[in-house]
Specification:
Elements (H helix, E strand, L loop, with lengths): L1 H10 L16 H15 L7 H16 L13 H8 L1
């Protein structure tokens, strides 16, 4: 299966992304996001339709994660507030 995916990526000119050897934290920011997403939106819920999942994901990312949720790595501000202050 992995080879089929690699072949499909190559066919469309998409490069694969891997952690660099010895750098186990290359993907830490995405792992952290997925952990938050699962705990705050997905766990314990069932989505009967793809559209319902897409809507929930959009609301979570655009409405909560970026605008309301406080992030410890940026001084307990939301990303929107952090970017506004930095501009």
């Amino acid at each position: 299966m992995a080879y089929a995916i690699q072949d499909e990526l190559e066919k469309h000119g998409i490069s694969k992304s891997y952690n660099r050897a010895g750098h186990c934290t290359d993907n830490a920011h995405m792992e952290s996001f997925y952990h938050s997403l699962e705990g705050e939106l997905i766990r314990g819920r069932k989505f009967d339709q793809e559209l319902a999942l897409r809507s929930a994901l959009s609301s979570y990312v655009d409405g909560f994660y970026n605008r309301t949720r406080l992030h410890s790595g940026i001084g307990y501000m939301s990303p929107i507030n952090y970017e506004t202050r930095a501009a």
